[in-house]
Amino acid sequence: MHAPCVRVPTEEGEATRRRLADADLVAESLDIVVEDGALYVPVTDPDAVPEEYEIVERDVPERETPTTPADILGFEPSYGRLGDVVILDEDDRARAARIADAIVESNVRAETVVNRASKVKGETRVRDWDVLVGESTETVHREYGCEFALDIAEVYFSPRLATERHRVVQQVEAGERAFDMFAGVGPYAIPMAKAGAEVVATDINEAAIDYLRENAERNDVTDRITATAGTCETSSRARHGRSEVTEVRDLAADYEGWAERLVMNLPHTANEFLDAAVRLAGDECVLHYYDIQHESERYAPGEAAIRAAAEPAYDVTVETRHTVRSYAPHEYNVCLDVGLTRR
Question: Where is the SAM-dependent methyltransferase TRM5/TYW2-type domain (predicted)?
């Protein structure tokens, strides 16, 4: 079968295979080939392979079908992956435990298996988890050449948004100034810094900012990232769950007119922070504004909110109207890429 492969010297083969496997990039249905002093590792997504590796196209034999959870269970279970944590969403705990056991018995790589025990809740958007296998909810997730350490019990992170994050990061130019207003553990901020931007990142969740700082070190971008956490006890507003407003507005005063790119990935309530975004915006700025809206009117409410906040001080140009994913029945997660030009 013809497939993209990473080619490395045989002495580097095992370390390379491990690194690609950790990033879920190894094509498990295809065999690794050794030929003329080189190892050829078939990969699932050549665009996500770290840049230092050489990618070639070649014929590789198909591998014997591995044992899957479905082989053991007799049905195809639904589960997600985040690093070496496998995530279930089962209402029946006995069924969840059965699936977890099958995952352990199969060829699926997993250190921990968890089941969702609550919806996303609170300002930090974390969940409760029922740990079925393993002990730690901490893991390392890899996407598009970046590593992100995180604990799913302490921070919010969605691996399903990797393609969307990459879409935005591809627009970043070296030397520009980017501000990530709701940064989490850095899935926008880290790759923007790797692209050469100077990045300021903030989040109300202090655990997330701690991981962001660790991730900046992991990805060798500490010199291009300033990370700031909000506090939860600085004011009466903070005690009533509005510390994020206070923190972003304080930073807006410090970085007024600074940003050439703004990321606002807080889709349910980003409109509440547009006044701070406009203060942060420089003379020329691109705003990536995320929203959740009904299918009948996906973009108009966000565009109206941006215009209300930015005009007449800025000319507002909607460059891209982009549907990220389905969020709920008849509701969509969308992004507006908006150019702001000071008048």
Answer: 79-342
Give 4's strand partners.
57
The pLDDT tens digits for 154-176 are 999 998 899 999 999 999 999 99
Contact 20, 43 (CB under 8 A): yes
Question: Could you give the 3-state DSSP secondary structure of residue 205?
Answer: coil
Report the SS3 class of residue 15.
helix
Residue 38 pairs in a beta bridge with: 9, 35
- CB-based contacts of 79, cutoff 8 Å, min separation 6: 69, 86, 87, 88, 89, 99, 103
Edge-to-edge strands, sheet with 129-133: 80-82, 85-88, 112-116, 129-133
What domains are defined for the chain? 2-59 (3.30.70.2580), 69-136 (3.30.300.110), 158-342 (3.40.50.150)
Contacts of 177 (CB under 8 A, 6+ apart): 197, 198, 200, 258, 259, 260, 261, 282
Distance of CA 99 to the CA centre of its chain: 26
The pTM of the full predicted model, rounded to 2 decimals, is 0.77
Cis omega (within 30 of 0) for bond into 312: yes
Q: What is the pLDDT of residues 302-331, one digit of tens each?
A: 999 999 999 999 999 999 999 999 999 999
Residue 72, number of CB atoms within 10 A of its CB: 17
